[in-house]
C-alpha cells in the first residue's frame, strides 16, 4: 500500500510540474520563441568567426616560434641542403595556402551571414572558377613533384664515373642494428637469413663459401669517413624496419626478403657537429632538463650529442630503443678504426692475414637475439 501511495504522489508531482511549465510558456507569449536564428544571432556568429580566425592565426604563429627550434638544423650530408630547400619550399607554400584559404573561409562566413529578406544565390556550376582552382594546384604540385624527383635522382645516383662509394650493409632485426662493411674488395659477401648460425657466430647469415665475404667486417657501431660517399645495402631479418638517419636526411625501409639501398656523402664530422651553434643550444636545453631530474633523485646522465641510426617504423614493443650510434670522422681515424676490427674470416676461425691488427671486437649475441631467430 505504501508503494502505491508513493507512486500516486510522484505522478501528481509530475502533473504539477507540467502545469507550471505551461503557465510559464503563457507568460512569455509576447516574446520571440522562434528556433530560427535572427539577424542579431547571425551577426554575433559572424564576429565569433573572426574571433576564431584570429585565435587560429595566433596559435599558428606561436607554434612556429615555440616549436621551430626543434627542427634538425644543419644537415650533415651532401644532399642535405637540397632536401631542406625542398622541405622549406613545401612548408612555405602550405602555410601561405592555409593562411589565405582559412582567412577567406571565415571572412565569407561573416560577409554572407543570414539576413532578413536576403536570399542565397545558387550557382549550378562555374567553369571559370573550377578551372582556376584546378589548374593552380596542378601546376604547383607538378613543380614540387618534378623538383622532388630530380632531387631524389641526384641523391640515389651511385653510378657516377668519378665516384666509387663505400659499401655498407645495415642489418635490421628486432630490436637492434648491425653494420657489415664490404672490406678491402668493397664487395659484400652473399647472405641469407637461412644461413644464420649462432653456434658459429654467423649472426647475419653470410655465405661462408663466398670469398667476397672473408674481408667483411661486422660492427655494432657505424663509423663513416667524412667526404666519402657511402652506399648502404639494407636487409631485415623479421619485420619491416626503417633505417632513419635524420641529421643526414636519409631514410629507407628495410624489408624482409629483399635488399633496399640508399646513399649519401657525410660532410660534417661528429666533433664538428657537436660545436654547431644549434646543437650546442639543444644539448644545453636537454642537460638542463636532466639536471632537474637528477635534483629530484631521478637517474639522468648528462647528454652528449651523437649521430644516430634509428628505426622509423613501429616494429614492436622495444621499437623506441632500436638505435645505433654513428661516428663521422676523418679518413685517417676511420682507417685506424677499421684496422682494429676483426674480419668475418677471422671470426669464423679462417686464416686472415690481410687485415693487419685484430682487436677484441667479437660480436656479442644476447639471449633475446638468439630467441628471436629460434636458436636456444
From TrEMBL:
EC number(s) recorded for this UniProt protein: 7.1.1.9
Domain Cytochrome oxidase subunit II transmembrane region profile as annotated: residue spans: 64-159
Membrane topology: Multi-pass membrane protein
Gene Ontology MF: a single term: copper ion binding
Cofactor(s) it depends on: Cu cation
BP GO terms, sorted: ATP synthesis coupled electron transport
Keywords attached to this entry: Copper, Electron transport, Membrane, Metal-binding, Respiratory chain, Translocase, Transmembrane, Transmembrane helix, Transport
Cofactor note: Binds a copper A center.
Catalytic activity: 4 Fe(II)-[cytochrome c] + O2 + 8 H(+)(in) = 4 Fe(III)-[cytochrome c] + 2 H2O + 4 H(+)(out)
GO cellular component term of the entry, any: plasma membrane
Compartment annotation: Cell membrane; Membrane
Transmembrane segments: 6-24, 44-65, 85-110, 131-150
Residues annotated as domain Cytochrome oxidase subunit II copper A binding: 163-340
Role summary: Subunits I and II form the functional core of the enzyme complex. Electrons originating in cytochrome c are transferred via heme a and Cu(A) to the binuclear center formed by heme a3 and Cu(B).
UniProt name for this protein: Cytochrome c oxidase subunit 2
